[in-house]
Every structure is written in structure tokens, then in C-alpha cells.
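Form 7-S
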Amino acid sequence: MTKPYIIFARYNAEANSKIIEILRNLPHAEREKERGSFYGSLSGIVRHILGGSCYISGLFTKALSGNAAASDALAVIAAVPHAPEGVLTDEQWQETATSIGAADSGYIALTKALRNDDLDLPIKLDWYGGKPDAVPLWFMLQQLTAHHTHHRGQISQIFDELKIDNDYSGMSPSLL
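Output:
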């Protein structure tokens, strides 16, 4: 059943949007400040969320080549501009914020385009040491949600330390 994946994609988009809104209201230097996280700054974590979305979605291209609507959505995600590594300029930050919204929109379109039988398609992987060398699409869709949630948790922790109110952890019934 594809409906849960549509809801997860909507949730990711809604939560990412709330984070971006909070970050847009921070001074640029605060977004770029080293925070001791693996990805450094708040914008570094956002850049990683975006990169993860694009990378993981790119793994679906071959498996979903027989689904035209899904392929179109994947093409939208593949066309999303990526931020450069390192400290971003304010303009680069704004582009990254726009890009994450575009990737999220493409991901929602992808989940809406999926057919139930698509969920079991094998997705070839280049990690896990080749064991397994492929997993079902449904597993990777869940991985993408987990990836976003994990890194939003890192951002939330930093916001908590900065005493910035943030609450994007629950799913709204409006997502149904």
C-alpha cells in the first residue's frame, strides 16, 4: 500500500519547511557557525539532508524506469541544485532552502506516482558490503524518512541549546 509513503513524504516536507522557516529567521552567521555536529553547521546539516534526498532518490531511477510518472518525479529531484561544500554565502543558503523544498515536492510526486507493485522492486545498493546487494523499494522509502528524521533531530538539539522554540516532530492529521 503506497498511502503511508505519501504521508511520510508529506511529513518530511512539512517538517523540513518548518526547519527552513526557523533557519531563515536566524542571522546568516548563526546558520554557518560550527556546532560540533558531524556536518558542522546548521546549514551543513540541511545540505546533508538535501544531498541524502537526492542521492537515495537517484537509486530508484533504474528500478522505476517502467513507471513514467515516477520517472518524471525522479527527474525533478535529480535536477535540484546542490549547495557547495563549506561555508555558504547568504545567497547560497537561500538557494539551498529553495532546493530542499523542490526536492521535497518531487519526493511527494514520486510517492503519489508509485503503484503497489513498485514497492517490491529491487533497489541496487553500494553499501552494506554487498550483503545484500539490493533491497525492496519500500525499505529505501523508509530509510529516506529515517534519514530526514535523524538529521532533523540533530538540528532540533542545536535549536534547543540555542533556546529556539521548535516543534516539528509530530505528524499532523492534515497529512492524511
